[in-house]
Amino acid sequence: MTTPHLIVVGNYAPDRQESMERFTQMLTDAFDERDCTYSVQTPTARLSRAFGTYRHSGLPKWLGYVDKYLLFPRVLRQAISVQAKNSPVVVHICDHSNAMYAKTAAAAGAPQVVTCHDLLAVRGALGEDTDCPASPSGVKLQKWILRSLDAAQHVACDSAYTRDDLQRLLPRRPPGRSSVVPIGLNHPYRRLAPEETAARLNAAGFPPTADFILHVGSNLARKNKPAVLHAAAQAGAAFAGEIVFAGPPLTPELKQLAQQLGLTGRIREVLRPDNDLLEALYNAARALVFPSRWEGFGWPIIEAQACGCPVICGNQSSLPEVAGAAALLCAPDDYAALGHALASLAEPGRREALRAAGQTNLERFSPSLTTDLYLNLYRQLSATSLRP
Questions:
Q1: Average pLDDT over the chain, rounded to an integer
Q2: C-alpha distances in angstroms, 196 versus 199, 208, 277?
Q3: pLDDT per residue as tens digits for the range 239-291
Q4: Which of 18, 142, 228, 380 has its CA 20 to 30 A from that of 287?
């Protein structure tokens, strides 16, 4: 069966949703390798560009909504109509937060699939505890997203955990209209030669004998950065190295907590590292400590495993599913357990066993498998007939 032309719907650039941009890029890179025909459509900042700095509040936010939800659907429908004159079309909406565009695709007669990365914000808007509270307008937006997912022809979920959430929140939706498509690495992270790792870290200001644990991620509450600090404090003499946070600057509250725990001199911030530096950090770290409470997938886990970095992570949401038997799992707020896990890495053979298990686990998340699953889904959807 021939693969149809793919219209890939990306995110609104001013929203700066880095993980969604990386997912879209991962897909299009795979399409290039497979010689698939595709085009990318994203909402254009028309009204919101009147402001020098876009922000997610006040008038700029509402003008952004006009750009995304009133102006862009017309552009998308036109793009579908033009392309459909030449070949079958399938629309892939890369972010479930844009699920409302599925209605536009259906109205234009195009089959559509929405990738659902997680339903944490939706669940938060419905009153569930996911560390994702919603404002009154946010509650309305998240309910709109959920209704749009219900109407979408097919929803591909990053994990079984997220698919279970989808089926629980939309119990009348036929199970056959959703599937699990695990996401692979969005960059070819790998084990480096020790001298290459050392050279990259030296350029970033790390000493040759650097000993550190690593956290990768934002300051969102669900990422649970305080638990990383508590784990280091609980490990005591078994770990006297640095705590490296790769991502945005730490908040004043996190810095204050580090001071209270006596860790101030051991904190190192690596602000928004590029892939090469992040790869070196994974290669050199004693462990990735990722005690997130809520995740739809958890990219840093497989990134670390690809680089031979042992993983300590939370034992809830999607993390056990992604980590498999290749990580030390702890309740995300059990600081003593996290500290004990970190201290246990000093035991002979412990890190080596986790490194080997991580390489085996990684086989479940190859980019080629993700691509195969999506291409098969596109072909199945293109065999359906939709009319406006």
A1: 93
A2: 5, 12, 11
A3: 999 999 999 999 999 999 999 999 999 999 999 999 999 999 999 999 999 99
A4: 18
Three-state SS across the chain? CCCCEEEEECCCHHHCCHHHHHHHHHHHHHHHHCCCCEEEECCCCCCHHHCCCCCCCHHHHHHHHHHHHHHHHHHHHHHHHHHHCCCCEEEEECCHHHCCHHHHHHHCCCCEEEEECCCHHHHHHCCCCCCCCCCHHHHHHHHHHHHHHHHCCEEEECCHHHHHHHHHHCCCCCHHHEEECCCCCCCCCCCCCHHHHHHHHHHCCCCCCCCEEEEECCCCHHHCHHHHHHHHHHHHHHCCCEEEEEECCCCHHHHHHHHHCCCHHHEEEEECCCHHHHHHHHHHCCEEEECCCCCCCCHHHHHHHHCCCCEEEECCCCHHHHHCCCCEEECCCCHHHHHHHHHHCCCCCHHHHHHHHHHHHHHHHCHHHHHHHHHHHHHHHHCCCCCC
Query: Which of 193, 160, 94, 116 minimizes the C-alpha distance to 364?
Result: 160
Tens of pLDDT along 215-224?
999 999 999 9
Average pLDDT over residues 295-299: 94
Instruction: Determine if the pTM surpasses 0.85.
Output: yes
**In order of start, what are the domains of the chain with their CATH numbers?**
5-184+367-382 (3.40.50.2000), 194-364 (3.40.50.2000)
